[in-house]
Amino acid sequence: MDLGLNGKMAIVCASSKGLGFGCARALAREGMQLFINGRDSDQLDFAADEIRRDTGARIVTIPGDISQPSTRESIVESCPNPDVLINNSGGPPAGDFREWDRADWIKALDNNMLAPIDMIKAVVDGMIERRFGRIVNITSGAVKAPIDVLGLSNGARAGLTGFVAGLARDIACHNVTINNLLPGAFETDRMTGVARAMALKNNLDPEEELERRKMLIPAQRWGDPDEFGHACAFLCSTGAGYITGQNVLIDGGAYPGTL
Fold first, then answer.
1. DSSP string spanning 63-81?
2. 0.85 cut: is pTM over it?
3. Interatomic CA distance for residues 221 and 219, integer angstroms
4. Is residue 112 a contact partner of residue 190, using CB atoms and an 8 Å limit?
5. Helices in the chain by DSSP H: which ranges?
6. CA distance 13 to 74
7. What distance in Å separates the CA atoms of residue 66 and residue 112, rounded to the nearest whole number?
8. Cα 30 from Cα 236, distance rounded (Å)
């Protein structure tokens, strides 16, 4: 299936590994030029080399923390007119809300709500002028079914979701779409790290707890970041212009609801 992305440009934030990397590789396989970002410059270069070997894509790396304005400015300076923007950032730590102070909340909001909104603000008007744009925000399955120990993430990502719901419908007439991808349990450092921390806090064996959690998923396995990338690439395609303002849950069937 030709997604119509060959020759177009994509910014993929926090894409040196995990779900961001899966999205970057999927877009590169469609012939896109990539502008990728990550905090660890060595890991970022490693990721870029791996994608180049796999796809032959042209890739520009912009190291830095996406929550910092200077990093976002560098990304937009490198690619001022992207056709695609993938917003992504590492989630805040798990814990009890009683332990968090104002600084913890502000950091979570900066990382998982305000930074993606700032990136959207920087590129959306150009997309509108060119009458093509695809913005995908990687949020969390916790937006659909909140996880008690991920309160910082629940709050910040829900704020982003509410903002997107309005903006997406305001700009849809310009062939610019904004959607959110909500990952469930994918095999990433973030997922396994949070699960192990929760297991230790409850005096459980981390590996046994990971296996137990996996078997609770109807698919009875962890998600593969490449699967996530394929879904992301489709939402970015020229054929997905009638899909906007949606929260697409990818969780192997773990969410039990009908809506």
1. ES-TTSHHHHHHHHHH-SS
2. yes
3. 6
4. no
5. 18-29, 41-55, 69-78, 102-109, 115-130, 151-171, 189-201, 206-216, 225-236
6. 12
7. 10
8. 10
